[in-house]
User: Fold these one by one.
Assistant:
Number 1:
Amino acid sequence: MHRVATNARHLLTGLALGVLAFPAQAAWTLNMTQGVTSTAQEAYDLHMLVFWICTIVGIGVFGSMIYAIVVFRKSKGAVPATFSHNTNAEIIWTVIPTLILFYLGYVTAPALIRIDDTRNSEMTLKITGYQWKWQYEYVGQDYSFFSTLAASSNAARQLGSDIAPASVENYLRDVDKPLVVPVGVKIRYLLTANDVLHAWWVPAFSVKRDAIPGYVNEGWFKVDKAGVYRGQCAELCGKDHGFMPIVVRAVPRAEFDAWLAAQKSPSPAVAVASAAVAAN
């Protein structure tokens, strides 16, 4: 019974923190963030386009309703209409929405095609989801590693722990070994899972794709700005679903090459370069 209760607690905690364990900025941002990839920027631009179209339509519709309610009211002598319909009005409110939908399809379809266009990629990553960690493999580079929840967060989340979660930096959003990628390089990723469904989600990249056992999903991203970007598994995958974050560190190409060389053959000289990248 104690084990069942503990597992239930972990599941509920994971569900809650899976939703809430995000930066304070994200929690208080009213609009979409623009992200750091071309895909994210396109998604933001399309979002704003649709937002302003909806705003104009809303102003027109509600403005007409308010005008009709105020002007054509019984107290001002208005009487019920004697006609059942108006052909011109029906044509207008059918043709205009149709044109809007055709326009939105025209500007959206090319973006949807580009999202899945992995041609001309300079680098390939294989990402495998496990309960409850990620494995990253640099295809063709003979190097892979596992990325799991950081020890500080793992200690604070344990039942009976006296460590206050608020005292842990990036609580439940940090890992022991982040994924390192070069800036300005189109990266093709192959996504799968070893056990159950997972989903690799990094909001700043506008990437959220399912990792399915026995199936390989494909996509790409190109980070335009160096920095650390966080995400997490976005598919309920078990009791520790909320405890498998994603951390991606984007660095200049020269620093990435030095880091990768250090991981493959950690000589003292190259290890210094690797430590410098990790410290940034």
Number 2:
Amino acid sequence: MSTTTRTQVIIVGGGPSGLMLSHILAQAGIESIILERTSRQHVLSRIRAGVLEAGTVQMLRQHGLAQRLDTEGSVHNGTGIVWAGHEQFFIDVKKHTGRTMMTYGQTAITEDLYAARDAAGGVIIEAAADVALHDITGSRPWASYRQDGVMQRIEADFIAGCDGFHGVSRRSIPETVLQTFEKVYPFGWLGVMSRTPPVPEIIYANHPDGFAMCSQRNPMLSRYYVQCPLSDTPEDWSDDRFWNALTTRMGPVIADQIETGPSIEKSIAPLRSFVAEPMRWGQLFLVGDAAHIVPPTGAKGLNLAFSDVFYLSRALIDFYRTGKGSGLDSYSETALRRVWSATRLSWWLTNLLHRFPEQTAIDQRLQEAELDFLRRNEDAQRALARPYVGEPF
């Protein structure tokens, strides 16, 4: 026998964006229920980005979620770039913007958010199968789901689709309404995690063998990447092969700073740009990967999701406090302005730092000329620093 539950906001998806939205709404006295199709353990097993914009850090602090971040996170004033035959140069983000970034793993953020929702008595329904959204354009939208073989119903004022690229939320918008834009890149990133001290800064490398990156999660957890063909599998890359590729692409100066060790996680992620418009349909609002995917080159995925949460939570709070719906009406336009800005930055960095299969000799020389221009031109570095650290919300 099915049951019906009533809340103010249904949040589809129990990842960091859904948890963050629920947390902010609860602080404003707004009820929500999170529907997550998998288990908490599965959500926490996802290995994702860990470079946080200044605005994301400020947001976490503002909502009481930064105690562990400030203890374990690492502040970064900028990022280094190195390419074959040249010494590293540094994009001094703090100098050009007055703001800094932090590295702190998405898994840790998700753990912190789960702890906060548990402490506040937040409702998170796990293993919610066959989620479907109904009456989205009506005044009382609702969601159905199956749990333990029983169909359940939740009614609400609004639905927030925080359920990722493969979730039900975006698919619930009619094809006649939704417009999508996509660019698929002809390579992937092989990512490796190791329990080794990371290099001091975030570093990108452009090398004839392909892109590479040094990042980190905490003082004893490093995250590294190398560009690889999409046909490769993690099993094709032994630890020795990976470390040899990484140190070669980084060059001898950076290689001397890299402490190698056994990998504790190894995976390959394809690169693509994807944007769906609009991000609102009726009482349904798309958030994060449900609406947009960016290549990880600019470290914008989680940061974009949190900016969506910022705009949507502000609009919902204003609606419940004042009855005004102007923020909800402008949500899609406001969020997409930032989405397209981040998509442009990620596209530009991806083209600047990777070697493409169809790249000709003149393409390579022009790429190197662009890198040299960036190295020598402080105005160009300033233009990169602002979107890289993230514009204020």
Number 3:
Amino acid sequence: MPPSASNILDFEKPIAELEAEIEDIKRLTAEQGVDRSEEIAILEQHRDRLMEQIFSRLTPWDKTLLARHPRRPYTLDYVRLLFDDYTELHGDRLFTDDKAMIGGLGTFDGRQVMFVGQQKGRDLKERQFRNFGSAKPEGYRKALRLMKLAEKFGRPIIAFVDTPAADCSVGAESRGISEAIARNLMEMSALKVPIIIAILGEGGSGGALGIGVGNSVLMLEYAIYSVIPPEGCAAILWRDPAKAPEAAAALRITAEDALRLGVIDEVVPEPLGGAHRNPDLTARTLKTAILRNLDELCSMTGDELAAQRYQKFRAMGQFLTMPELAEIDAAAG
């Protein structure tokens, strides 16, 4: 079923026009019984070439829009595609069940694993129900409860990241959103089971990091990972949210940038046109990457896993001390 006009990004419009033409010809072929397969094949080849041209020159802002695409697969879509079976678990045993954060037990290629992840919504009603994928303190406490349970029973953890940011409402602040995220960072650093992170769409701020400390961090090709959304950055630096495209470029938020900076370990390719065009293929590619990393991590002891994870994140970022700066200045004359 072709996407509605509201689901088409600006740079996708030439592709959508070609696809609409192809669909019209296919419909007429079915109605009139005339063989137009050659004409359809030519148009499909032209569409594929056009897609290759467009997607070979996407800007960081274009990739941001793709990461937020309304038809992009969300965490539960991948859970259904990746796991043979799964049972969702609820509640943080302290306050309530946060619908923006999901988690549970699953069978992954014959292995028993624990999964956690943020879940967005498709329509307005579901988005409100899921709080647009922005988890509250109880969501992060639920995720930690499940991860500690996984450690108790020796099960690997797979975390799916897809959130614009953690919830910043008065209620979330009053219940300790900062403390909940900080505790997750500390506790995840020391867990003695394999942890694999998969950034599916938006990896936004502390909301992403709250379930983002892993031995292996994978990122889909058109996902983004950033300390702040481009609009927020533009509002702070330029006092103009309209400069979000410039901010997206400056923030280095793409998967390619994150890999080059050492923030992630692997970029998982998406089908031509993005994950929303072929969720099944995307899930198969992601599954292959997770399995490869899981096989490697499962050969390590609990202490080795915790040490590797801790050192991995300690090594991120580069800085100079004042004496080192003084030496550089002296050498420069």
